[in-house]
Amino acid sequence: MVHMCTVTPISLTVGANRIIPTIAIPYPLGDPKLTKEEEKVLRRKLVEKALKALETEVDGQTVFED
Amino acid sequence: MGKVRIVHYINQFFAGIGGEEKADYKPEVREGVVGPGMEFNKKFGDDAEIVATIICGDSYFNENLDEAKAEVIEMVKKYNPDLFIAGPAFNAGRYGVACGAIAEAVEEELKIPVLSGMYIENPGADMFKSSVYIVSTKNSAAGMRHAVKTMAPLALKLAKGEAIGAPDAEGYIPRGIRKNYFAEKRGAQRAVEMLIKKLKGETYITEYPMPDFDRVEPNPAVKDITKAKIALVTSGGVVPKGNPDHIEASSASKYGKYSIAGVDDLTEETYETAHGGYDPIYCNQDSDRVLPVDVLRDLEKEGKIGKLHDFFYTTTGNGTGVKISKSFAETFSKELVADGVDAVVLTST
Amino acid sequence: MHLELGNIFINDVQFGSQTKVENKTLYVNKEELITLISEDEHLKSVDVELAKPGESIRITPVKDVIEPRVKVAGSGGIFPGVLTKVDTVGAGRTHVLKGAAVVTTGKVVGFQEGIIDMTGTGAEYTPFSKLNNVVLICQPVDDIKPHDHERALRMAGLKAAEYFGKAGKDIEPDEVLSFETLPLLKSIEKYPKLPKVAYVQMLQSQGLLHDTYVYGVDAKQTLPTLIKPTELMDGAIISGNCVSACDKNTTYHHLNNPIVQDLFKQHGKEINFVGVIITNENVFLADKQRSSNWTADLAEYLGVEGVVVSQEGFGNPDTDLIMNCKKIEEKGIKTVIVTDEYAGRNGASQSLADADPKADAVVTGGNANEVIKLPPMEKIIGDLSIVNTIAGGFDGSVQKDGSLVVELQTITGATNELGFNKLTAKGF
Q1: C198 CB contacts (<8 Å, ≥6 apart)?
Q2: Which of B105, B126, B127, C302 has the most crowded Cβ, counting Cβ within 10 A?
Q3: What total number of domains does chain C contain?
Q4: A58 touches chain B (CB under 8 A)
């Protein structure tokens, strides 16, 4: 499992092992300031990062920063 | 209420049958008291009586858990007791686990109060303290009289259905159950007084001791993501428009499972959030911002992932307790495994 | 900075031909009040009801509660930057209609609005059951946007509180309390031997229905800063309506911040209360990091030895609370944090979303998930049907006979995180 969330400290506290930091609490995978197209590009990048994390071996809790 | 009827559970050692070599002893029931039961009966006086004692080997119990539980419950049932006592187990690990497990099972099946006693570091204490009243004992059988002295009055209270006081007053290991009450002073005054004590280096008692959170071993990496079936799960409350299952805005009592077969994009007309803990405007405009169905669908079409699972699971994480969240996940992760899902993307707001 | 608070005790509220205070009674000219509040083009209709302690009345959905106050001497006016110019307040003299409040209700804006019962079990949990309330029922125009709706209600409540406050301007108060905050260096000179203490107030700033305003500025667009405690008493901080009702800080709470009051009570005796640091609870992680760094730095810069930190709301703000606590403790400053709990309906779950061993001095306002039954009331002000869907309500919360089965979460102010109440929780 990969956990995509904004407040990574909570994710660490509750024990997720693969963590992807996201944009903001009300829109983790978007940004209303962008156009729809730009927003989808942003979302795709985040999801691809999550998939990459799933393919990565980890030996403990890991936050996948850039 | 007449004399309280009690059934007592002990292991082969306390029954005087033998030590480790007799640990595979099968459950046996005897009328009246055996071993430590005598000490209990002395303390109970005319208020209560141990009517039967069940003896079971620790290895037998732990290695044949379901069978042993069923056998013991049948034996207890016959005596129609008002209360069930297991142990005390002191620091004996397998005995402690057996006491906790059988006490929990008896309470659940026969709906009668149960009580056990253990040393705080007994693994059984940690495993069962939230479901069973476990009196905190010394670490060896030398503490028997001391243990019985605390257990007997608590046993009577439990049997009579009287209110149970705080852990420190009654002598049981805190169960981690938070209960509200009205203090004498308002919170602000308590805070200021606590700070003054802390500044002076005096002792003070925190009103909420920090918990230890669970940890799990990470799963191995997904070998080939282009072949993997990926499922989406969210605590952000994304639901089909209208929230058909009425998932609560906060403190959810349930989760939803909804099909996204054939759905390429979550739109303002079709999906929304039930979550009451954040500004819902953005998610209501476009729920892909919380649950990225559109992008995963594209990736599926491009062959970058094997398949996007036909169902997503959702609840509102807002004010929803860790325990109930765990129980949701225990149920739906079995379904996910059965459906051949290889990996989960969990999104949170 | 020196402020005198003149409390005018109010024991009763009645409709009358003129809005005035006489013999501890607040008289309300209903038509005049309705005309004033109806000026807002976002409101379609306005009505006024009275709710007194002990009456069989349930008010829901409650948005805000505000205490009537008026500046009698000193610069600025009540609710600076919102109703009056952004002059600095907190000095001179302010009159308070103690025992009276304005409560706003009307069509529900979001999930987070609350319940006030004036009698029965519910009344024990909300401090507002003890007040003589003037309830404004404001219905918005059709198709109003949520943000405009919230704002219209917020302004209606503040305007009404200011309107009633003016009625106390020339009344001789029943008691006068005095509060003073000296410049930091003078304060240290005056009490050289007492430990210096500050109050860190976290302001809810997560977006619609979760906002707070400081001198009219949305707190999410602010950096942590210093403010004098007496400024709070003049309405420098106001509520932007809601969060779960039980742990929102209403404007009433901000005006009567109990931590400020109780720190003042020990000021010059056990501690030297030097001031207030306000910070926010934003939705971006970077904001949380920046604000908590800044807060800890300000505490260190002030040279305080101890702080009380209060929270507003729950969930991700638990992280702001823990970050603030941890970073301040790491500066060698002793902390006490004030929060509440979401331990599940059976009380067996973990209470906070975040935790740290450094948070070893916690005061709790109780478990907001506890389920309670509220008896039916003879009169409903507002709309009962929304109770099934507000935070802390569930399918079936509204029973056939009008009684409610709800979590404490739904009751306005029940588990307040400024330590306003006596309610707390304990491990069993």
Answers
A1: C273, C274, C275, C276, C277, C299, C302, C304, C306, C307
A2: B105
A3: 1
A4: yes
